[in-house]
């Protein structure tokens, strides 16, 4: 399973993106470290059971800020999924994942790094179901 967001034209075509992602995975999936420099980019990553999470920035980006984003995403998902961060649980809660990413970054700009705030905002946005999509008991 792969969720990706590219915020610039470093890899403009899907073919280039796939090659880059394959290269990153091949370089990182067997190591225990949390950071790598690859193709002039700073890559921070974390794995959990059958998932790999990556946050990538330019070589000029602060590694601690990139790691803060990664930890915020992982910790937010961990709370939302009740510490069951694995592929099946994530697939069943894909909307929550997208909302969390949307709360953490916007267009590549870091908005939030506190997982408690992210989880709270995702819960609020999840409650904003349009009246036409609500069941009678919800209304």
TrEMBL record:
- The organism's place on the tree of life at top rank: Eukaryota
Q: Which GO terms describe its biological process?
A: intra-Golgi vesicle-mediated transport; intracellular protein transport; retrograde vesicle-mediated transport, Golgi to endoplasmic reticulum
Q: Give the transmembrane ranges.
A: none
Topology of the protein relative to the lipid bilayer: Peripheral membrane protein
Q: Which UniProt keywords apply?
A: Cytoplasm, Cytoplasmic vesicle, ER-Golgi transport, Golgi apparatus, Membrane, Protein transport, Transport
Provide one Gene Ontology cellular component.
COPI vesicle coat
Q: Boundaries of each AP complex mu/sigma subunit domain copy? A: 3-127
PROSITE patterns cross-referenced by the UniProt entry: CLAT_ADAPTOR_S
Q: Which CDD domains match?
A: Zeta-COP
Q: Name the Gene3D superfamilies on file.
A: 3.30.450.60
Major subcellular site: cytoplasm
Query: Where does it reside?
Result: Cytoplasm; Golgi apparatus membrane; Cytoplasmic vesicle, COPI-coated vesicle membrane
| InterPro entries attached to this UniProt entry | AP_mu_sigma_su, Clathrin_sm-chain_CS, Coatomer_zeta, Longin-like_dom_sf
Identify the SUPFAM superfamilies for this entry.
Answer: SNARE-like
Q: Its family?
A: Belongs to the adaptor complexes small subunit family.
Subunit annotation: Oligomeric complex that consists of at least the alpha, beta, beta', gamma, delta, epsilon and zeta subunits.
Q: What does this protein do?
A: The coatomer is a cytosolic protein complex that binds to dilysine motifs and reversibly associates with Golgi non-clathrin-coated vesicles, which further mediate biosynthetic protein transport from the ER, via the Golgi up to the trans Golgi network. Coatomer complex is required for budding from Golgi membranes, and is essential for the retrograde Golgi-to-ER transport of dilysine-tagged proteins. The zeta subunit may be involved in regulating the coat assembly and, hence, the rate of biosynthetic protein transport due to its association-dissociation properties with the coatomer complex.
What is the protein name stated in its UniProt record?
Answer: Coatomer subunit zeta
The organism's lineage is:
Eukaryota, Metazoa, Chordata, Craniata, Vertebrata
């Amino acid at each position: 399973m792969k969720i990706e967001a590219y915020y610039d034209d470093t890899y403009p075509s899907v073919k280039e993106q796939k090659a880059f992602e394959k290269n990153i995975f091949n370089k990182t999936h067997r190591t225990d470290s949390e950071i790598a420099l690859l193709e002039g980019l700073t890559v921070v990553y974390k794995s959990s059971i059958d998932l790999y999470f990556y946050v990538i920035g330019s070589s000029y980006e602060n590694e601690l800020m990139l790691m803060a984003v990664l930890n915020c995403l992982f910790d937010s998902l961990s709370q939302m999924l009740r510490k069951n961060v694995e592929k099946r649980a994530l697939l069943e809660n894909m909307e929550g994942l997208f909302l969390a990413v949307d709360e953490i970054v916007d267009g590549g700009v870091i908005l939030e790094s506190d997982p408690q705030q992210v989880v709270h905002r995702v819960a609020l946005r999840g409650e904003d179901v349009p009246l036409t999509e609500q069941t009678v008991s919800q209304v």
